[in-house]
Fold this sequence. Notes:
The chain contains one helix and 28 strands.
Amino acid sequence: MRNGLLIAFLLFSAMLHAQVRKICDLVAIPEVSGSILVNQKIWCMPDGGNAAALYLFDSTQCQITDTTTFANAGNEDWEEIAQNSSQVFIGDFGNNDGVRKNLKIFRFNTSQLGSKNIVCDTITFFYPKQTNFNANILTIYDCEAMVAGDDSIYIFSKSYADALCRIYKIPNKKGHFPAEIIDSIQLNFWVTGASIQGTELALVGYGFNGKLTPALWRGKFIHGKITATNYQKSLATNGPLQVESCMILPNKVLFTAEASNGENAALFEFIEPVNIISGAIKKPIIVSPNPSMGHITISNPSKLNIEITICTMEGKIARILYTNSVIQTVNISYIPSGVYALTVSEISTDTSIKSIIYSEKLVIE
């Protein structure tokens, strides 16, 4: 039984590394930074310093077929485009060094796509806890990903410092607002793009090994909260990719990458394994009880080498433990009551590579 579980898990991991296909090059948009799918048509936008315009991209002909331009929306550092049931949002909030004080989101009606010189609404925001605006490449106040609901906008931090993806909520209305932190998730990559369909959320980016290894996280997102993790994996490609955006489709995720390392910007697709979203694949590790009081028990039937991290929602580590035992009980009575992020990672035999198996909320009573 133990070998069967291990084989199933390894096959599952292999499936997640397979089936990435380049659809076409995006030669005309080398610094593609965001993309959305509207009526089965792909609208792309360029990164900061390029034209303040959106481009309708025909993936069958690999060319631009239409353009949207704006009267009052400059492109200081456009990083993400999102949509809700009737509106489109452009995130001009790139903040690589943590120095910006003019973070903004432009908003217009979806029906205006393809129009020229659109007058946008402008939503501005700030991070209430940021008091230091000196340049710092390890800032936690850089965001490149966003999704939108009818009442609220949610942005996801890139956070070079700690790879804790902080989730902020901003009202969907004109004005100047504090970005309210409402959740977080520890990932093994820097987040550069997001997409949502119903309660299904995708986050893409690249790993922090300096090799631009593309990565994808999939899970449930309800009212600004991560409620479940389906999987998180690196995506095997022919080389490094600076992934910048994604779009969820049935049984697949489309993603774009900027031109880098001598390769053109391009549109890719990742075919998801059958039934993965339905939860048919079972966790190889179980941590219980949850909620917990005083202790947790780790069930590890395949005796994987694992690391378990318990963090506060602000990213402060409360406990790290390692085990390869089938069953292990751990004392957590010294950790204050509250809601924590629990992350389970498998460690390779030479301890040089960690692969997150899943993350979930841990309630300590």
